[in-house]
Amino acid sequence: MNPLRLIRTSTFQLAWWYMGIFGASALVLIGVVWWTTVGYLEEQTNELLEEEIQGLVAEFDQRGLPGLARVIQQRVTSNAGTPTLYLLVDRNGQAITGNLRGWPAQRPDGEGWYSLVSVGQDGRRAPARGKALDLRDGMRLLVAQDLSRLEATRSLINDTFLWALGGGLVLALVGGFLMSYSVMRRIEAINRASREIMTGRLQRRMPMRGINDEFDQLSENLNAMLDRIDSLVEGVKSVADNIAHDLRTPLTRLRGRLENLSARPELDMELRDELGSALIEADHLLATFGALLRIARIESGTHDREWVEIALRPLLHDAWELYQAVGEEKDIVVTLGEASGQLRGDRDLLFQALCNLLDNAIKYSPPGSEVVLAVANCADATSISITDQGPGIPEAERGKVLDRFYRSASVTGIPGSGLGLSLVSAIAHYHGGQLVLGDNAPGLRATLRLPAAAAAIATPFPAVAFAGLSR
User: Fold this and answer.
1) How many CB atoms lie within 10 A of CB 65?
2) Do residues 204 and 313 share a domain?
3) 349 in any annotated domain
4) Cβ atoms of 133 and 113 closer than 8 Å
5) Parent domain of 293
6) pTM of the prediction?
7) Which helix (H) or strand (E) covers residue 85, if one does?
8) pLDDT tens across 190-207, in order?
9) Is 370 buried (19+), middle (13-18) or exposed (0-12) by CB count in 10 A?
10) What is the pLDDT of residues 296-336, one digit of tens each?
C-alpha cells in the first residue's frame, strides 16, 4: 500500500493529533519531574552547605583561628575526592587555608550565594556554588560545593526524558501507521466489493470479520441494502423478460404478417407502399425495443459474452467495410485511418458501438463530406475516434444526448430513436471507459476512450442483435 496514501488518511491524521496531545502531555510531565528532581537536588546541596558552614563557625567559636584552619586542612586533605571547596582569607584577602585558588571576583546574588568555576588538580573546570561568611578580625570564610555531579545528574535526567519522549513519539508514529494500514485494509476491501458491484455483480457482498465492530456493522447494513437492491433488480429483470416475451413476439408476428400481406400480387401500388411504410415502422419499433433491453442489460453488467483480446485493425476494418457502401450511396467518403494495437473486451459490443457511431456520422453528414475512423494509442488507454463534417452537437447538449430518447433540436426531422449514443455510452462504461463528444470544427468528434487492459467481468444474458439506431 502506498505510504503517501496512508499519511493522507483520516486515521493517520487522527493518530498525529493523538501523538501531538501525547507529546504535549509528556513535555508537561517531564517539566514537572525535571523541576521537582533538579530543584530537590539543588535544595539538598544548599542545605549541606549551610550545615557545613554552621559546623565550621562553631569550630571557629570554640577553638579560634588555629582550630578552624586545622579542621579545614584536615577536610581538604582527607576528602580530596569530595566536591566541597573551602577558602579562608584574612582581612587583606590573603588565603590562610583551603583548596580554592582565590576569592571569586563576581558579587554574590541577593541571597549571598556565589556562582563560580573551580579548577581541579587535573585542570578540569567545573561549576560550583558557595556562600561566604564574615568572621572576627575581618576574616572571611567561603564554602562552595562542586556542582559537576549535580550537572551530570541533570544531564542524565534530560537525556533520559528526551529519549523517552522521542521513543514515545516514534511508537505513536508507528502505531499510527499500523492503525491506518489496518483501517485502510478494511476500507479497501469494501471499496473493491463496491467496484465489483458497480460493474453489475450484485451478488457480491461486503466482507465481514465477525467481530461485530463498526466496520462489520457498516458491512452488515450495506449487505442488507444490497440484498434489497438485488431483489428489486431481479424483479425488474423479470418484468423485462415478460415484456420481451409478451410484446416482442407479437410485434415480430405482426411484422411477419405485414410482410406476407405485402407479397400478395393482387395489391395495388398505393396499398403496397403503405404496407412498406408499416414494415419500416415495425422494424424501427423492434430495434428500439431491442436497444432498450440491451442498454439495460449492459448497464446492469448482465452480459454473457466472454472478453477476449481484440486486434483493433480487423475490428475497425470490418466496421469500415460495412459502412463504406452506405457512405457511397450518400456521396460521403468513409476513411479508415491509422488503426493498430489491441485491447480486451467484448468484440460484438464494440463492433455494435462503432456501427452506431458510423451510422450517426453518415446520417448527419452532408453529401461530398468525409467521415474518418481512426485509433490513437497511449500507455494506459486506447481512443477510437469517428469524425464527421455535419452540424455537430452544441456543447450544452453533449451530456444530454447520452440520455435515452434525448434528441438534439438541431437534428429535428431526421429519423432516429435517441438511443444510439445511449447504447454506445453504456458499452463504453461496460468496458471501463467513456464516450467523449467534442467539436470537429465543423462536425462532431465522437471518441471511445477505453482502458488498454479492461477488467470488467461479464455475466450471462441473451444477446439481442440490432443496428442502425441513431442519436
Assistant:
1) 16
2) no
3) yes
4) no
5) 199-300
6) 0.45
7) strand 84-89
8) 888 888 777 667 778 888
9) middle
10) 666 555 555 567 788 888 888 888 888 888 888 888 898 88
